[in-house]
Amino acid sequence: MAAHIPPDGKVNNNNPRYLHLYQHYLSEAFNIINNTPISNDVDYLESQINNALINNIPSLDERIKFINNMHAECSGQYVADGYLSWLDDNIACTWLWLIIISDGIKNSDLLQLLESCEFNTNHITLKSYNELNLDLGFTPSNHKERLYVIQQYLDRFCLDIYAKLEIIKIMNNVWDNSENLTPIVKWLKKEDETQCEWVWNYFNKEVIEKGALAAFKNITKGVVSPQEKYIMFFGFYVFWLDTDSSKKLFFLQMKNSWAQKKSRLNKVKKNLRGINVSVAPEVGKQLEELAVSYSSTITKVIELAIRNEYKKFKNK
After folding, report:
1. What span, in angstroms and rounded, lies between the C-alpha atoms of 146 and 155?
2. Which domain of life is it from (predicted)?
């Protein structure tokens, strides 16, 4: 992708990922400290970059030369979307996001993954998530935001584009060869909100809160909707660095516990009345938003709305 440099020597690029790379390049070149969270506002990013360029390189000719060099360097770091298409899978994306944010200062999990694949990292420098100081200004709570974090990291964690692409290929292969999740899928249903809530709460309590993955306590607080809990459970399950026997035992205990829970739920449901209701698409979306807002399920939101309306009716 060639840089478009107008006669006034200003950056003009509508790809926010390139603009983030430009910002990083400028901060390294001129020791600029940027304390503002990462933004995807193209106009804002271009303004910040161009102001820094003008302030640090008054000469138009020198500035144009610098921009050309900057774009060439950044193009050598940019990871094209095609290499990341496997992350369209919500669970794969969550798994890789967990690896990236867990690596701390020393890239321990990433290095362990690469070493297990016999990839020699001695000839390259890999920067960890913490070292890159990626201030997002938010904690990712959905697939789009997690993919955004991954893109930001992969664009900058290694300066050698060939090594970078090879590492991404390795991570893709590791995911493809990861433990088969079919036994879980057979009984864990994404559309069963009650089950998704229970499974995530069980995993969170037994694995995260009890210490095995304690470092993720703050991150998991943002997991609200049943659909997100379903995705996060699978992502954490694959990421969970434990022995196969321990994971299989945990899985068996969880499945048995759910069977008992389901038996109790079925007894309760005998006293409930089932109804089939079709609503307009926008109403369905509103119900989902309310469920997320109340940290509840769609069924409970509907029950609450009916109870409130019935109280109003009786109080007339």
Report:
1. 14
2. Bacteria
